[in-house]
Amino acid sequence: MDASLQTSPQHHPAQWFGQPRGLVVLFLTEMWEKFSFYGMKALLIYYMIRHLQFAQADASLIYGAYAGGVYLTPIFGGYLADRWLGRRRAILIGGTLMALGHFVLAFESAFFAALVLIALGNGLFLPNLPSQVGDLYDEKDPRRGGSYNIYYVGVNLGALLAPLVCGTLGEVYGWHWGFGAAGVGMCLGLAIYVLGGRHLPPDRPRSQAAAADAPAATGAGRFVPLLLVGLAVVVFRSGYEQSGNTLAVWAETGVDRALWGMTVPVTWMQSLNPLLVFLFTPFVVAGWRRAAERGREPSSLAKMAWGAAGVALSYLMLALLAATHGGTPVSMLWVGAFFIVYTLAELYILPVGLGLFARLAPRGMGATIIAAWFLASFGGNLLSGVVGRYMEPLGTTGFFVLLGAITGAAALALYALRPLLRRVEATSAA
């Protein structure tokens, strides 16, 4: 066995930026993986409509199916890692498959095969990288609670750079240049992960002893509430995920992108959300910390409910804009205002939900439970493709009202689940 796998992270006291070195390694690995993922995703809907000549309804359905597929495979990838492969080997295999899939996109006849490769690779990669974050800290380390928010910044830093680099290359120089850049980003992420491996926590295969620490009754008591939360998140994501699907289609003709004598590439608009995540996260986390010091920090589900309600509000803003502007393109300033509300709301639900599932995972099942969180993303993305087919029949205003109603319903469901999850968290802390 590699010596690095036998070394506990507590034996490496050196830190970077006040955090364990392993968090920096995971942050950068995730940043480049998300650069790869979102770089390809920024081009996908336009590539299908403009180049492959798919109808908008069909392209949205394929987009939703693909986006759902990349969140279905992690449930198998997490299980394989916990029971057989180990987290590190799963990450290396998954990253290699994803890089290969991006390069295969250079061949039009292999379009669907490339999507399958990326989805399979993502299944091995996605649940196993974040499952290592918590293992970098002692259970009572005060930095542990905010570690997933820091990690989430890495996710969004990659998502910020991706449309600017891959989107520009794809729109200006050709689709395959953009897809190729996404593949290169995945290779960089793998290189960082391998070179920084000595700073990462050891793999912890599920053993009989670990299984004994999580008896069936306790497991069932946690799984049912998490399942209900996951179902509410499925509904939420069916509306939330339209930002890269139907919202991107609307932005191409519904937004005035003229700026300083040039037309802003439409893919650049997909960088607004991750840019704002990067800017707002320190303030949001600091606010939660101050609230916790006063004993007034909201529960995880309260935060998530407020986040879903905020996304609903952002879509209703777009509905009002569409109703008042008719067929006239709206200013990019209004789109910026939409993304400010949308992003602040996102910070209250997505990283919080990931941390919630990681915190309540039984011992020895960390990757599997985190994969279950991403399984909710599968259902939501798949459903988003179905929802996206109603854009043309309902018209822009009606469609944005529908998205507001969907995410608002998810907010109500999450808020109603607070008492049930409060009991589970109390039992877990006991």
From TrEMBL:
Keyword Transcription regulation: no
Highest taxon of source: Bacteria
Domain Major facilitator superfamily (MFS) profile, residue spans: 22-422
Gene3D superfamilies: MFS general substrate transporter like domains
Residues that span the membrane, as ranges: 61-81, 111-129, 150-170, 176-195, 216-236, 272-292, 304-326, 332-358, 370-391, 397-417
Primary localization: membrane
Keyword Transport carried by entry: yes
Membrane topology type: Multi-pass membrane protein
Swiss-Prot/TrEMBL keywords: Cell membrane, Membrane, Peptide transport, Protein transport, Transmembrane, Transmembrane helix, Transport
Name of a matching Pfam family: PTR2
Location in the cell: Cell membrane; Membrane
Annotated family: Belongs to the major facilitator superfamily. Proton-dependent oligopeptide transporter (POT/PTR) (TC 2.A.17) family.
Name the record gives this protein: POT family proton-dependent oligopeptide transporter
Species of provenance: Roseateles asaccharophilus
Lineage, top ranks: Bacteria, Pseudomonadati, Pseudomonadota, Betaproteobacteria, Burkholderiales
